Amino acid sequence: MKEQIKFTVSVGNEYKPDWQAKAKSILEPMNPIHMNLSPSGLVLEFVFDHYPDLADEARHDLRGHGISSSISVRREYTMDELVNAKFLVLNTREVVDSVPDTLQWHLLRLCDHCGFQETVWDLSTLHIANKPQGYEFAKVDWHPKVVSPLLAEQLQKEKYTGLELIPIHGENLPSWYAVQTTHTLPPLKSPPTRLIRLPRATTSCQPNHNWEFPDSQFFYNRAGFEVADFNKTFEIFGDSQSAAPAIVISNRVYRMFTSLGVKKLICEPIQIIE
What is the CATH number of domain 2-76? Predict the structure, then answer.
């Protein structure tokens, strides 16, 4: 795995002349591999090949000096790392469109302390405008996940655990199948998973909602890690009314997807630790 972290610091038009020196004094001891200054002179970018241990403390220190900051993380995996991973987070860049007014939903209140509501999709009314072509795994309007009939047939043939496929009918035969995961994983181990709770969470909230999607890999304890071929995370990521758990699949599901040439997959290995 190759990891690149960009730690960007910036100031507005009104700034102290020594802001660059102050930012460098805070971040250079963390050993960046590159540093870039914008042409305007108002933005400094520090590049790391690992996530700095003291990143949170550094951002707090920078704020105290009137310097804004942000962190972006990118990870790249070799094909061998992906193919040999026992379990992977599954997502896709493939998006299909619903027929207008057919993607309906209702909100399920999960928490009386913060008012968090989970979106429940009404698949019985859904019609998808795109015709399936080959083996496809996609999101409908960026939300519920579906597979084409050809891929659904292969998934059913393999009898994968933790998976329910719900037919979405077109004019005649089912044109797509919604993907439902029926097995829930235990909570992520944090740290080392970088889990950040969203501001609306209260101290009385249950630990399953109001989470930002981690910018790290997912880490799980080996003890008690019971897993199926298709799984959903215990954590629901995102704000109320637009949140969803992540999907985690087994190695044999990933291998089947790649062998069939399913396009635009976004997959990342998870880590299971003692």
Answer: 3.30.70.100
